[in-house]
């Protein structure tokens, strides 16, 4: 996989920020957004092990109309010469002009297959999945779950925690499906803890993370918790307040802030610091899992 050669370990940079410093907290940025120019951040960590397991077969995966996971999978397929199929949530999108995200997937060679939302919700059901594979003309495909969250990916993300051993007291990450947090927590040292900031509403993620860790490692592992207050209304919701926060953070630190995940993570960490959630002397590492797509 020479075309997917990463920059590892990803850089760990100090971010001098008075909103943390006045509480005696040190903020570090784990720049996973610099791992690879097209498979950015946790996308590289989760996808590459799955692409190895695919062993040259067609790769079929799932996502919404603005899915970064679909874009990364399509880019990987182009780089490696693999056929890719993206099952897209929302059959109402079929026949419409593609948005920029899906247009990029198509340009990278991904075949898009639109399904209704009720079917999409049942995609993990074996019978529904078998029917999807037939209708997508991909019966022999290697299936990667939405967001890349499976045991193969979780084990791949354990290296992220290992790279941060001894470097921070708290390692924080934005969560979609929870796969990266599941692996990260398993890779940290005793005494370190992982904090997940979910970007979706629902309150279901803790159960999903425990299930992923059980599948990957035989049971829950690591010291982790979730703070579910910073989703800003749900996935892909960006309020004017969050937009203003992200723009301010970009000015302060000259860091492009991806809005759907990273901005919510950083906002949550600032709020927690102001609440006194981190004792004085704590070092917090925020994992920058992506950057704005062009």
Task: Using brief descriptors, characterize the structure shown.
globular; Rossmann fold; 10 strands; 4-stranded parallel sheet; alpha/beta; 6-stranded mixed sheet; 294 residues
Quickly count the helices.
11
Beta-strand share of residues: 15-25%
Radius of gyration: 19 Å
Return the CATH class of the largest domain.
Answer: Alpha Beta
Average pLDDT, all residues: 94
Helicity level: 25-40%
Q: In terms of structural class, how would the helical and strand content be classed?
A: alpha/beta
Question: How many domain units?
Answer: 2
Spatial strand sequence of the major β-sheet: 1-2-10-7-8-9
Oligomer: single chain
Low-confidence stretches: none
Distance between the termini: 25 Å
Instruction: Give, in order, the helices and strands.
Output: EHEHEHEHEHHEHEHEHEHHE
Known CATH architecture of the largest domain: 3-Layer(aba) Sandwich
Q: Fill in the CATH topology of the largest domain.
A: Rossmann fold
Count of distinct strands: 10
Major sheet characteristics: 6 strands, mixed
Tell me the overall shape. Answer: globular
